[in-house]
Write a structure and sequence with these properties.
Layout (H helix, E strand, L loop, with lengths): L1 H19 L10 E7 L5 E7 L1 H27 L34 E4 L4 E4 L7 H8 L8 H4 L75 E7 L7 H11 L3 E5 L19 E6 L11 E6 L4 E3 L8 E8 L5 E8 L7 H11 L6 E8 L5 E2 L4 E2 L6 H13 L3 E2 L12 E5 L5 E7 L7 E6 L6 H8 L3 H5 L3
Helix pairs in contact: 1-2, 6-7
Length: 472
């Protein structure tokens, strides 16, 4: 109603402005004055503007009235009648991974912690965690809780203060031995206790071994779970700092990367030096001058890995073999499908999977599959989605070879593009989206597999001297 009244007022004002626009001194050379005598000997004076000046004056008047009209609209739309006439630029978009304490963004440049209970990221400094404890937490498989979730709720008291008496009506406790039975030893403790048959001993230090001529056995830091990260780089050369911080933060055993944008003129040492302790296998895009593709797999030097080129086909795919404890092997594949309408890449992927010998192998296939219209919780193609045929083919190829996809959260916007397939999904005990390096989230996984280390391989290859003298 207010806007209607203002519109009516401004329209009336526009109409009346034409009548009062000529009230200027007659000494102005732009005016023309005509005087005529009437029958009653009264004179009428006609004052008007010259045509070109009159048009310019009306346009200027209407422009001013338009600004006045907009100002009135702003006043009407303001809730308190006092609009901010100079609001300035809008603020930045809210951070995607805000800290639960300071609400600032948590990125790979910070030491971040993820609370499993409230599913919130925190800066280690905001939680008061020292660097030493933070480094220990990297190798721990225990779920971490923030101070908000870990502290008990003291909002309600255990006792009602109003029911407490001010005087003690009981007699003093006697010195006689209580007849209540002893509760016995505690069933659990907050600190570890040594084995009953062995006393607690300090950790072994090879530098102080009682027999200096005998070398202490090498121990592996790998546990029963392998840590894996699946990254869409979009140029690994421009993400070197982020990659190095990710390695320091998560200590992955295997890194699977897509869209590396590498070529033969770039050495591996330029983005991942030997000091990080990884063996890097690359498959750069070789088509013309467009290098916006390529895949890589980086494996820690403590694992025994080899490339399997006979599994690779005419698409952006890379396969490695990693030795596991026992007779089993682990086949790790990195795959990149550039476009969601690309059906040829799916055909090449099918040909590659047909070459696998899965008799005693655990298969991992990860990368950027560019299949945004698949609901992996079903799994099935979303009804009415474009390129549904290509999506159906991808589902069929993976299901025919017994592979199940375990990443269910979106990795780029609302789409789940960065996937992880395996033929043993029950061994995957953790899948998390982590802060992104590019416009894709980094996928972090923990898989219950025990890989064979180089120290174990050396022990198997070392001949036993007692066997050579046996029977002599």
């Amino acid at each position: 109603m207010t806007i209607f009244l203002i519109s009516f007022f401004m329209s009336s004002y526009l109409a009346s402005a034409e009548l009062f626009s000529v009230q200027e001194p007659t000494t102005n050379p732009d005016w023309s004055v005509t005087t005529c005598g009437g029958p009653n000997k009264c004179e009428a004076m006609l004052v008007s503007l010259n045509p070109h000046h009159q048009k310019h004056s009306m346009e200027k008047s209407k422009a001013r009235l338009s600004l006045l009209y907009l100002a009135c609209l702003l006043l009407c739309q303001s809730p308190d009648g006092n609009p901010n006439f100079n609001p300035g630029p809008r603020g930045r978009n809210p951070p995607k991974w805000p800290c639960g304490d300071c609400h600032k963004n948590v990125s790979w440049k910070h030491k971040g912690l993820f609370c499993e209970n409230c599913e919130t990221w925190y800066h280690a400094s905001c939680q008061g965690m020292r660097s030493v404890i933070y480094e220990v937490a990297h190798f721990s498989t225990v779920e971490w809780e923030c101070t908000n979730c870990g502290v008990p709720n003291f909002s309600s008291t255990l006792f009602d203060p109003s029911s407490l008496e001010h005087s003690n009506s009981f007699s003093a406790i006697s010195d006689s031995t209580s007849s209540l039975p002893s509760p016995g030893a505690p069933q659990a403790a907050s600190s570890p206790v040594g084995h009953p048959t062995q006393p607690n001993r300090p950790p072994h230090n090879p530098a102080h071994h009682p027999n200096p001529t005998r070398q202490a056995p090498r121990t592996s830091k790998l546990g029963n779970a392998l840590r894996v990260v699946n990254i869409n780089f979009q140029s690994v050369m421009s993400k070197k700092a982020e990659l190095h911080h990710l390695i320091d933060s998560t200590k992955p055993d295997i890194i699977i990367g897509t869209e590396t944008w590498l070529h033969d003129g770039i050495k591996t040492q330029e983005f991942l030096p030997n000091s990080f302790g990884y063996s890097v296998y690359r498959s750069d895009r070789q088509t013309g001058t467009d290098h916006h593709g390529g895949v890589l797999i980086a494996v820690t030097n403590r694992l025994i890995s080899d490339r399997v080129p006979e599994l690779e086909t005419n698409c952006e795919i890379l396969w490695l073999k990693i030795n596991l404890v026992g007779v089993n092997t682990l086949l790790v594949g990195a795959f990149y499908r550039p476009h969601m309408k690309d059906r040829q890449a799916i055909k090449e992927l099918k040909l590659s999977l047909q070459r696998l010998n899965r008799s005693n192998a655990t298969v991992w296939l990860a990368g950027d599959f560019n299949a945004p219209h698949i609901d992996w919780s079903v799994p099935g193609v979303v009804h009415g989605s474009p390129y549904s045929t290509a999506h159906e083919e991808l589902l069929g190829v993976t299901q025919d070879h017994g592979l199940e996809q375990v990443v269910l959260k979106p990795t780029r916007g609302k789409n789940t593009l960065d996937l992880f397939f395996t033929n043993h999904p029950a061994k995957v005990n953790r899948v998390e989206n982590m802060p992104q390096i590019s416009d894709h989230n980094t996928v972090f996984l923990e898989v219950n597999l025990k890989a064979k280390t180089l120290s174990q391989k050396a022990q198997e290859d070392t001949p036993l001297l007692w066997q050579s003298t046996r029977g002599k």
